[in-house]
Amino acid sequence: MKKILYYFLIIIGALSILVGVFSLIKGGDFKAYFYSIFIGVVLIGTTYYNHQQKQKK
Q1: What are 22-50's pLDDT values in tens digits?
Q2: Distance (Å, whole) CA 1 – CA 54
Q3: Which of 8, 30, 37, 39 has fewest C-beta within 10 Å?
Q4: For residues 27 and 25, what is the distance between their CA atoms, to the nearest angstrom?
């Protein structure tokens, strides 16, 4: 995975988490902030895991 793509996916995941937290603070719908935070965590976790696996090779 190229570094620019790695950082791009991490930033998108972080933005998703921030939007979810903002929605939670503002009292938004549970589905809106839960899925936003969940997708952000999964995106960051998957990207980080794939990056670590490729560095081991």
Answers
A1: 999 999 888 888 999 999 999 999 999 99
A2: 8
A3: 30
A4: 5
Token pair, residue 33, equals: 């902030």
d(CA 22, CA 12): 15
47 neighbors 9 (Cβ within 8 angstroms): yes
What residue type is 54 in one-letter code? K
Dig out the tokens for 16 from the structure.
């998703």
For 4-15, write each residue's pLDDT tens digit.
999 999 999 999
Spatial separation of the C-alpha atoms in residues 19 and 36, rounded to whole Å: 7
